[in-house]
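Hi R.,

Here are the chain sequences for the assembly we discussed:
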Amino acid sequence: MVEFKINGKKVQAEKGETILDVAKREGYEIPTLCYHEKLGSDGRCRLCIVEIQRGNRRRFVASCLYPVENDIDVYTDSEDVLLIRKTVLELLLARCPNSDTIKNLAIQYGVFDVRYTKDNDKGKCILCGLCVRTCESIVGVSALCMSGKGPEKKVTTPFDDPSEVCIGCGACAVVCPTGHIYIEDKGGYRTIWRKKFELARCPKCNRFHAPIEQLEFISKKTGVDIEELLICQDCK
Amino acid sequence: MNITLEQLDSISSRYIDVMSKYSKIIRVCCGTGCVSSGALKVYENLKRALMDKGLIDKVLVKKTGCHGLCERGPIVVLGDEEILYQSVGKRNIDDDITALLNTITENQIVDRLLYQGEDKGKKYISPKDIPFYAGQKRVVLSLNGIIDPEDIEEYISKGGYRALYKALLMEPEEIINWIEKSGLRGRGGGGFPTGTKWRSCRSAPGDVKYVVANGAEGDPGAFMDKSLMEGNPHSIIEGMIIGGYAIGSNQGFIYVRDEYFLAVNRLIKAIESARSYGLLGKNIFDSGFDFDIKIFRGGDAFVCGESTALMSCIEGKSGESRAKYIHTVEKGLWEKPTNLNNIETWACVPHIINKGWNWFATIGTPNSRGTKVFSLVGKVKNTGLIEVPMGITLREIIYDLGGGIRGDKKFKAVQTGGPSGGCIPEAYLEMPVDFDSLTKLGSMMGSGGMIVMDERNCMVDVARYFLKFLVEESCGKCTPCREGVRRMLEIVNRICNGEGKKGDIQHLEELARAVSLGSLCGLGQSAPNPVLSTIKYFRDEYILHIEEKKCPAGVCKALTEFKILPDKCTGCMRCAMECPVKCIKGAKKEVHVIDSDFCIKCGTCYDVCRFDAVMIE
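And here is the predicted structure of the full complex:
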């Protein structure tokens, strides 16, 4: 058992928990973008930064990653924490001025205006990496990656080519917090990440419901017969 | 067969025997600087000339690592620091080879090849007397420029691998005690106590541990580690084996930038020879200790000098940093305890073991022991590689070793610590150079880059330069660094283009604070330093740019006009001749005029005028 304080209040936690886990449980509000309860975090967005103090030493840490420690004082809304939070939101809003998710979050934390030239080439992608991690650890195909560095960094398929391993499942689009990833289902085909997938038609309701490649992947993984998977969820 | 101490000694005496057959040894610096000014040609031509004269059995010509005085390359040293010739072959290679032969055969000293200060004063014969060398204390560089880096036997003949033998007879704990008591701190920038790091890694649970040498050196203008890897690779290897033994690791990695092809090749060669002599591999010196080293060639990314990004690369992932809330000494490479030190730090280790921790601790200042290698570049007369005791003042480095400012212009600032460091103004030239003093000034030691700037450097432009570098070199993982630094650049660009607004300085300071507190790794956390330190010491210059739209250094083109003062112009025509776009008109002995419609504001006229007749408006 670990004991420490959040905003002056004594709290208890299990060893190995993160500050964010405990703060959330205790009802403190810490915004996050790149954190997902099934995927954890790797500290990209920096929105969840809190200040921790031990003795005279002050540090600013990503609460989504920092393991709880005895006798630390955590502050979730100190002056500098708010500065970092507002700055991160203003920077993300300048990058993705068309993202409602970012716009709403920014307003919630008092950022109404952007003092920088707004980008028009980054879409709504904030590079949180959730899509990449989902594809790798939940779907298990690793069709996506980050490429480039600095401001040129982007999420893409290797060499920007249609991915050989992508099954068109769309999990990346589901997990994306800003709606940057675009799926088009049209005329029996799905297009995602520059790759076109033939959609399976449910033999019962005649509706297109999932890419054949995805169903084949699931069949191979689970051993469930493909014929069975061709029936859509609604008709099962 | 395992090597023994006796075998080391017999290699030494055999080597010394062979060397004693030569009446003279000539060392041609083949560091990158000298090679680019033609050292290889000097080496080849001199060898051929000696062959023609039938002297090749009596005189040995050797390629060595960097001698340091890169400004005056190619450097050739005759005998045991007897004569230093500079700029050999630069004017006329055949003449200079003949001159070298004369010196070899007739002991005739050739005046024109001797080093002379820029003040055209005294000429120096022995490198020991040249202020650039006399002011140095060479420990890790002691064999740079002396030995052939590709010859392990020469390293052994100079006492090489004796520290390893000694260390393997010591208890690992005792070695760590020595390193701790020596006061050695990490030479890569942070200055973390090396002994403490080793101890943490040794006591971290786990059977498999790794040691890593960081040779990712990526600061603009820095070539300390490069010169060490090229000039004395065995000292790094020896240090790593000792470290591996002390920490309890059997596998080392050297991460080196692939662009450093000479360093890569020399390291590969050195590792191969160390293996073939039984100094790497199983049961070294019959101690029961096994150790080997792999080289990892890194791509050209500055961020990979950051330990976690570097380890990510070795693991085959992209070079992104990760949070160090659990330290790499506990969970580093492949989640195993990993001890990473900079190249120079590793190279200090054999010296500490050989000469004792108390010897090392006598050099330097109480909190910064030992020496530090710097690459001294910029507007200084003697650019090059220097090693100085910690605690030496900035003034001593720049004026005594560096010979002062080129063209005797006015000193303005010195940038230390690379892109993560800051600019230190003239008022602090008497500050001792050590880890803590530089940090106190808002800069840092960094890995040892030192860029000297004069009155023609605009400090806003300097901040812009480093920001631009950092924008491109940020790994892009975390928001404050990826987005924040480029927005700082956006503001500074605006200021340099004459579009600065009131409040920009405060905005920069606020953004800098958020970036430095909020970024994930050291790169982002220190990225605002060049901006913050220039604002701190040269705030007036920012204000002039913003409020009066003026760049006093004449660098920011949108804010600069060059004018010729009629009462000072003598009509010497020099500016008109040097002007690259020929926009200066005027006949001989008549006042010249710059046609501002065509002027590209390069400032050449200002720099070449001997009568101060060109002014910056």
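The interface with chain A takes residues 301, 303, 318-320, 322-323, 325-326, 471-480, 482-484, 486-487, 490, 507, 510-511, 513-515, 517-520 of chain B (CB under 8 Å). The mean pLDDT of chain B is 94.

Let me know if anything looks off.

Best,
T.
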